[in-house]
Specification:
With 142 residues, the chain is of the alpha/beta class. 21% of the residues lie in helices and 14% in strands. A two-stranded parallel sheet has the order 1-2.
């Protein structure tokens, strides 16, 4: 652990920890492999872009990701390669109600927000009516 991990004194009675940064954890470690919702960051180094994408996608989760670089083409390329429901480029956390929100793999099943989210709450039904006096198909022959 590089920093953090302590209970803040004013919040010691709850389930709170200080913002915490872990570095170079084994890829088998529990915290590296679970979806942590808290002020926790796990950091690993990588040799090249391809390895970074493989490491980021090597998880059963895929709610959100962020790519930071001055190279906009690299950002676009990596963002498209990441298996996450939302990928922020040179920012983190903005969400717009007009756009779909949800994850991939075991994260954020389905979509909320926007037109896509509305369709998750609807059930589509097909009604078909035959209006001819002629038989339709082999099962309606008289």
């Amino acid at each position: 652990m590089l920093t953090g991990g302590e209970h803040p004194l004013d919040l010691a009675s709850g389930y709170f920890i200080e913002p915490t940064i872990f570095a170079d954890l084994p890829t088998e470690s529990r915290i590296w492999n679970e979806e942590v919702f808290g002020p926790v960051l796990c950091v690993r180094t990588f040799r090249d872009e391809a390895q970074a994408v493989r490491m980021a996608n090597d998880t059963p989760y895929g709610l959100a990701a962020a790519v930071m670089s001055n190279d906009t083409e690299r950002c676009e390329r990596i963002a498209c390669a990441l298996r996450a429901g939302i990928v922020w480029i040179n920012c983190s956390q903005p969400t717009f109600t007009q756009a779909p929100w949800g994850g991939m793999k075991r994260s954020g099943i389905g979509r909320e927000l926007g037109l896509w989210g509305l369709h998750n709450y609807l059930e589509t039904k097909q009604l078909t009516r035959y209006v001819s006096t002629q038989p339709w198909g082999w099962y309606l022959r008289r």
